[in-house]
Amino acid sequence: MSVQLAVFLENRPGKLEAITKALAEAGVNIRGISMASEGEFGVLKILADDPEKAFRVLKEHHYTVSRRTVEIALIDDRPGGLHDLLAALSARDINIEDCYGIALEEGRRAAIVLDVEAFPEAEAVLKQRGVRLLGDRELGTI
Amino acid sequence: MYWEQSLETMERRELERHQLRLANASLSAARRSPHYAQVLAGFPERGLVSLAGLDELPFTGKAELRAGFPYGFLAVGLEEVVRLHSSSGTTGNPTVVYHTRGDIAEWENLIARCMYSTGVRKKDVFQNMMGYGLFTGGLGFHYGAERLGVLTIPIGPGNSRRQIWFLQHLGTTVIHILPSYALHLAGYFPELGIDPRRDLKLRIAFIGAEPHSEAVRRKIEEIYGIKVYNSYGLSEMCGPGVAFECLLQNGLHLWEDHFYPEIIDPVSGKVLPEGEEGELVLTTLKREAMPLIRYRTGDLTRLLPGPCPCGRTHRRIERIKGRSDDMLIINGVNLFPIQIEKTLMAIPAIGRNYLIEIHKDAYMDRLEVKVEINEEVFRGTLAELEKLQARVVAELRAELGVTPVVRLVEPSSLPVSEGKAKRVYDLRGGGA
Fold first, then answer.
1. Mean pLDDT, chain B, integer
2. How far is it, in rounded angstroms, from Cα B263 to Cα B279?
3. Residue B16 sits in a domain of what CATH number?
4. Which residues pair with B259 in a beta bridge?
5. How far B199 CA sits from the closest chain A CA (Å)?
6. What pLDDT was estimated at residue B113?
7. Measuring CA to CA, how many Å separate B190 from each of B186, B198, B347, B377?
8. β-strands B204-207, B227-234: how paired?
9. In chain B, pLDDT over 70 holds for what percent of residues?
């Protein structure tokens, strides 16, 4: 399991840039980023090499930010790799709230970030199938 | 428990006789000012036989005060005057109010009476976060607290980190603060690692100068872990100290040995029966430099019926509902900003600040409410935000009868003045 930061943002020019600036100045490396938007506002999801530090930095800049637990699963490098993984979850009726892909090792490998409500069940299913899950520390080094 | 027991608990009939004597003296004094010499010329000088007779005299309003600038209302020679205060008007001449040495002494005493009634004692430490200067909030409480004998810190508003440093290191027990600033200041505690309930010695706050809802008072009490008392006043009467809550926090005792209250219909000007809501009209009973007769405060309230269990016989006014001039008319529907505040404060996922804007699209008014989300309860999903937005719209619609546009904004993105918060922006133009 890993920690993802979710930041409330108004959908206006310069809002996103202010966040990346704050993190860059604090020396936080962003490993994955995704934005869910409703039009006027949205939620920015950030995977950082040091989530605790990133959380602190964003709080200091008065952002509304929350920590959410996610699974980051390495995807098998073959056709159907992602499909098998998702099929295993849907077979157990585990709903995915949100997901997005991230590239690793200069694009040689890929992982998918899964935000699920039924968290322990999802982790159990994935482990049982031998899917490799990345923790915060590995995310910082891969 | 009482600062001046005989005055505060004076039997009603005796209090009314006392008021009649003072009202007649005040009328005679007022006639010495150019304004009242003219306005009261047609009324017999022998005085009133009952307080009810006051309703035959004309009102005094802000417009008259402005027209009388600078010295039209002064009832004593300049050599008697020691101070001037001015209210926060933004258009035309300022309204200025003068004080003799005697006026200042009476005012100090009233503030001491107010503070004492909520349990403030000499050993307290009082941090006065109201503005010093022309505004009466700062200096009024300052001298009142000194009169009571409390260590008084004249810090004034703003510089939030320093405020908190003083609160912490001096062991402040009592503060005087704008309600909007109390909420704003609370936003600094998390980053400073301070839990106000645990790390501060604070026990009492006085709030005033802005209309605010009961929900805001309770919110401040909860955040700081203190008792919060409502203070009412206006510079034209003296400043704060006109009416004040006792320990029961159920209406504000209007000090009737200094001011005579009437509640009128703001449109017809007719005096309303006791208990009905209308505009508060006050006649000063002891002011020397600038007595005011039947002054229209613009504040909407009512006189609460029945005696207060605290034993004080001075009647209570209900918390100010709004001003007769801050009513908004949105597509023909009348509403008060305080209704919006009350609704927002009852939704836990909403933060401390909000802003109301009224726009005009083609021929229709659009009420737009900007609200901050409460970061404590934000879980990081888009769905919860959409749900929250819909809930705020629905609850405001139910309260107001108008469907607002609700915008969720980031915390601290709304302007927070450290003076009186301006929360309503009517952008319709053309005096619509």
1. 91
2. 5
3. 3.40.50.12780
4. B284
5. 21
6. 97
7. 8, 13, 21, 14
8. parallel
9. 96
Question: B206-236, pLDDT tens digit by residue?
Answer: 998 877 889 889 999 999 999 999 999 999 9
Q: What is the mean pLDDT of residues B9-29?
A: 97
Q: In a mutagenesis test of the A interface, which of B161, B355, B378, B384 is the best target, namely the one with the most A β-carbons within 10 Å?
A: B378
The predicted complex's ipTM stands at: 0.79
Q: Which residue of A has its CA nearest to B406?
A: A40
Return left, alpha or beta for B51; rule: phi > 0 is left, psi -120 to 50 is alpha, else beta.
alpha
CB B119 within 8 A of CB B143: no
pTM for the structure as a whole? 0.72
Q: What whole-number distance in Å separates Cα of residue B175 and Cα of residue B253?
A: 20
Q: Which residues contact A108 (CB under 8 A, 6 or more apart)?
A: none
- Residue ranges and CATH numbers for the domains of chain A are 2-68 (3.30.2130.10), 70-141 (3.30.70.260)
Q: Is position B188 within any domain? A: yes
Which tokens go with B61? 């309003």
Q: CA neighbours within 13 Å on the CB side: how many for B346?
A: 13
What are the C-alpha distances in Å from B360 to residues B335, B366, B398, B428? 17, 6, 22, 5
Range of the domain at B352: 328-426
Given a cut of 70, whether residue B307 has pLDDT beyond it is: yes
Q: How far apart are CA B375 and CA B311, in angstroms?
A: 44
Q: Peptide bond preceding B190: is omega within 30 degrees of 0, i.e. cis?
A: no
Burial environment of residue B282 by CB neighbours within 10 A (0 to 12, 13 to 18, 19 or more) = buried
- Decide if A64 and B375 are in contact by the 8 Å CB cutoff: yes
Structure tokens that stand for A3 in this block: 């920690």
The verdict on a CB contact (< 8 Å) between A64 and B191 is no
The count of other CB atoms within 10 Å of the CB of residue B118 is 20
Lowest pLDDT segment from A94-98, B102-106, B159-163, B277-281: A94-98
The answer to whether the CB atoms of A8 and B412 lie below 8 A apart is no
| Average confidence (pLDDT) over A79-98 | 87
What is the reported pLDDT for B431?
40
Nearest residue of B to residue A58, measured between CA atoms: B191
**Residue whose C-alpha is closest to residue B12's, from B344, B267, B428, B306:** B306
Domain boundary at B275, B305, B324, which? B324
Selected residue of A38, A59, A64, A98 to mutate for chain B interface (largest B Cβ count, 10 A): A64
Distance between B351 CA and the closest CA of chain A, angstroms = 11
* DSSP secondary structure of A8-63: EEE--TTHHHHHHHHHHHTTPPEEEEEEEE-SSEEEEEEEESSHHHHHHHHHHTT-
